[in-house]
Specification:
Layout lengths: L4 H12 L3 E2 L14 E2 L11 H15 L3 E14 L8 E2 L3 E14 L2 E12 L4 H13 L3 E8 L17 H11 L10 E8 L4 E8 L6 H4 L19 E4 L1
Parallel strand pairs: 1-2, 6-7, 7-8
Antiparallel strand pairs: 3-4, 3-5, 5-6, 8-9, 9-10
Length: about 240
């Protein structure tokens, strides 16, 4: 049994734009979710990966009655992360955690992991991207990296500037760095990027055999950002709401 993560993400997209804000600046409140984006101590709204994760779990439960899930799930391999990209290492240290695992029931009292998932919000540091990518690459199951951005503009996706790298540049660095630790040639990692304000997501499946030419997957212009203009280039699929 497998899970159709794209169907879930399409349902998530339908609801992301309907999430309310504790600090509501609109004249009318129009949303259909009970979950909202809260405000911080300085009164600005806080958007995070948590809202994305809760929405995803909600849609997963509606669409997959025969599958199960766990959160903050201990990894089956050991890792050392330290404090910077140079200290990230597999096969040493201790078990880490995965944001979510989807499981199927094999027998009455046994479960089998079928998909490991990591969620992220914002154009975070290389360190945070590399930690998650290593886990998804090294664990012996298919993986999904689900990334929420508030919006995308020039340079958000591709920007080789060291002071403001795009998310594609960070993905490429992580994949090249940990290529040898991809656990199984048959494994697939699905990359999914949501833009909250543009009400669109893009996705792409990635196999180990593509890592030799990984620049082709992310080979957009030197400075490229608008998620709506990715369309179906470089095997990415664009899904507007």
């Amino acid at each position: 049994m497998s899970v159709n993560i794209i169907n879930i993400c399409t349902e998530v997209l339908n609801n992301l734009s309907q999430i309310g804000y504790e600090k509501n600046e609109a004249k009318e409140i129009k949303f259909s979710n009970q979950i909202i984006f809260p405000k911080k101590y300085n009164k600005d709204n806080r958007i995070s990966e948590q809202e994305l994760r809760f929405l995803f779990i909600e849609k997963f439960k509606l669409l997959n009655h025969n599958l199960f899930y766990s959160v903050e799930t201990p990894t089956q391999e050991k890792y050392t992360f330290g404090k910077n990209v140079d200290t990230i290492k597999p096969n040493k240290g201790r078990s880490a955690s995965l944001d979510m695992c989807i499981l199927e029931s094999q027998k009455e009292k046994e479960f089998n992991r079928v998909l490991n998932i990591e969620f992220k919000f914002d154009n975070v540091s290389n360190f945070k991207i590399q930690k998650d990518f290593l886990k998804l690459m090294h664990e012996n199951k298919n993986g999904a990296f689900i990334h929420l951005l508030k919006n995308t503009d020039s340079g958000t996706l591709s920007n080789p500037n060291k002071k403001g790298e795009g998310v594609f540049n960070k993905y490429t660095k992580a994949l090249k760095k940990f290529e040898e630790h991809w656990s199984d040639d048959s494994k697939i990692i699905t990359l999914i990027i949501f833009s909250l304000e543009q009400n669109t997501y893009i996705y792409r499946e990635l196999k180990r055999t593509e890592l030799d030419n990984i620049d082709e997957a992310f080979g957009f212009k030197d400075k490229f950002g608008d998620i709506t203009k990715v369309k179906n280039k470089n095997s990415w699929i664009t899904v507007p709401n």
